[in-house]
Design brief:
alpha+beta, Phosphorylase Kinase, domain 1, Transferase(Phosphotransferase), domain 1, 2 domains, five-stranded mixed β-sheet, 26% helix, Prot_kinase_dom, ATP-binding
């Protein structure tokens, strides 16, 4: 089962629609959960019932509602506050959970290809729902994919929709790349219009990293990384992909195409033979455990 951290409505709870003091807000825990181009995410607790929550500080003028249908699998937007020109979003906090890179490291860097395909499938199912609502995430990376450890079968929760936008059928949208370019599509770097295919590129990078433990475009500086992305400068070195199936490589290549129009949709990706739609009964995988102990996610 996949999950989404999502802004559930263009009409937040009635009680949250006026500016209030920070004293009314959540209690800060000691841990910062993450940081993106639009702000930081912290762990905390809701004052009235001690419910574990996460909350994010973003500049109010950068906030965009992303409309979505109601699903049980969403992590809810519980409340929001405007304090000193900052918007504070209070979201349900999945517990216990770790991000995808930490999960792989906790497994000793030895995942099976079938496990990688499972996490990619879960991510694609989450994106499929977002894209159906014309919402693009635009910041898909391991730190924004939480693995829910609560159930016997780990589930995926996409978090940090600070960069997400709902696309219009009548106006093209160009997104400013503010953070790490490692998982960014060429159109984000070039400043050309984004689309749902922008997220599919990021899935291709995620799959490459999880299969090999190395990043396809990462270089010594963000500038060099951007050049590699725009030149589509990547390959499948035998040193890292010796035990990876050809069908897995084909999936990565299909997602990492310069022209967004040539990339498959999330729905089409889910029909790829490597990903499969049949859970444990879908997909074609190498049986050899993968060595991702060299995993290096970010610049």
């Amino acid at each position: 089962m996949f999950f989404l951290s999502s802004l559930e409505s263009r009409n937040p709870p009635e009680a949250a629609q006026s500016e209030r003091s920070a004293d009314d807000g959540p209690v800060l825990d000691s841990s910062k959960l993450g940081e993106g181009g639009c702000g930081c995410v912290y762990a905390g607790y809701r004052r009235e019932d001690n419910l574990p929550v996460s909350f994010s500080h973003v500049l109010s003028h950068t906030y965009r509602h992303t409309q979505s249908t109601v699903r049980k699998s969403h992590v809810d937007l519980l409340d929001w506050y405007i304090v000193d020109e900052e918007l504070i979003l209070v979201l349900e906090r999945p517990m216990p959970a770790v991000d995808l890179s930490n999960y792989i490291e906790s497994k000793g860097g030895h995942l099976k290809e079938k496990e990688v395909a499972f996490f990619i499938r879960e991510t694609l199912e989450a994106l499929q729902h977002l894209h159906t609502c014309r919402v693009v995430h635009l910041d898909l990376k391991p730190e924004n994919i939480m693995v829910d450890l609560h159930s016997p079968t780990p589930g995926i929760k996409l978090i940090d929709l600070g960069d997400a936008v709902q696309l219009s059928a009548h106006r093209r949208y160009v997104h400013l790349l503010l953070g790490n370019p490692e998982f960014a599509a060429p159109e984000l770097i070039r400043g050309t219009p984004v689309s749902v295919a922008t997220d599919v590129w990021s899935v291709g990078v995620l799959a490459y990293v999880a299969l090999s433990g190395v990043s396809p475009f990462l270089d010594e500086s963000p500038e060099e990384t951007c050049v590699n992305i725009c030149r589509l400068d990547f390959c499948f070195p035998d040193e890292y992909f010796r035990d990876v199936s050809q069908v897995a490589r084909d999936f990565v290549s299909s997602a990492l195409q310069q022209d967004p129009r040539k990339r498959p949709s999330a729905t089409s990706c889910l029909q790829h033979p490597w990903v499969g739609r049949g859970g444990a009964h879908g997909g074609e995988y190498s049986k050899t455990p993968l060595d991702t102990t060299r995993l290096e996610i970010s610049i």
